[in-house]
Write a structure and sequence with these properties.
This protein has 160 residues and is an all-alpha fold. It folds into two domains: 71 residues; 70 residues, Winged helix-like DNA-binding domain superfamily/Winged helix DNA-binding domain (Arc Repressor Mutant, subunit A), CATH 1.10.10. Helix content is 74%, strand content 0%. The longest helix is centred in the last third of the chain and has 24 residues. InterPro entries: RNA_pol_sigma-70-like, RNA_pol_sigma-70_dom, RNA_pol_sigma-E_actinobac, RNA_pol_sigma70_r2, RNA_pol_sigma70_r4_t2, RNA_pol_sigma_r2, RNA_pol_sigma_r3/r4-like, WH-like_DNA-bd_sf.
Length: 160
């Protein structure tokens, strides 16, 4: 597959992933652009990977995690959330929930990425662990903590 074909086939998926992890459409576009630029630089290597799309998603996730480590980074989703693609996505209703976005914004960057990769990208613990450079048991414990935080936020929202 040539790079241009990859971008046509998977570019919007990268923007959706960027949107889901960051909560901000402009940041999602930036993350997709960063991932595509890095993939383009080493396209021969990316193309030969077992799963080129997984490789590029890993680049995007690492770019997001790197971005969150910078002192100037602040998590502030835009006031109005625009879906990243005009074609209806079955997960859009869930992902665009204001309560969900507020709760996700309270998670650490790693917790948020683990949940997005597991539940939105449907990746297994081993693949997520490989992407993040951690053990599968760390993926499971991170997901467990993040889900507990989301449950707690949901309960406090319903009690109020």
């Amino acid at each position: 597959m040539e790079f241009e074909e990859y971008v046509s086939a998977r570019g919007q998926d990268l923007v959706r992933l960027g949107f889901t992890v960051s909560g901000d459409y402009q940041r999602a576009e930036d993350l997709a652009q960063i991932a595509l630029m890095q993939a383009f630089r080493s396209w021969r290597k990316v193309r030969k990977a077992d799963d080129p799309h997984l490789y590029v998603r890993r680049i995007l996730v690492n770019a997001y995690l790197s971005m969150t480590r910078r002192r100037s980074f602040t998590e502030s989703p835009s006031a109005e959330i625009d879906p990243p693609h005009p074609v209806p996505d079955p997960a859009t209703d869930i992902v665009n929930s204001d309560d969900l976005w507020r709760a996700l914004a309270e998670l650490s960057a790693r917790e948020r990425v683990v949940l997005v990769l597991r539940y939105y990208q449907d990746l297994d613990d081993r693949t997520i662990a490989d992407m993040l450079g951690i053990k599968p048991s760390s993926v499971r414990s991170t997901a467990s903590r993040a889900l507990a935080t989301l449950r707690k936020a949901r309960q406090s929202h319903h009690v109020s």
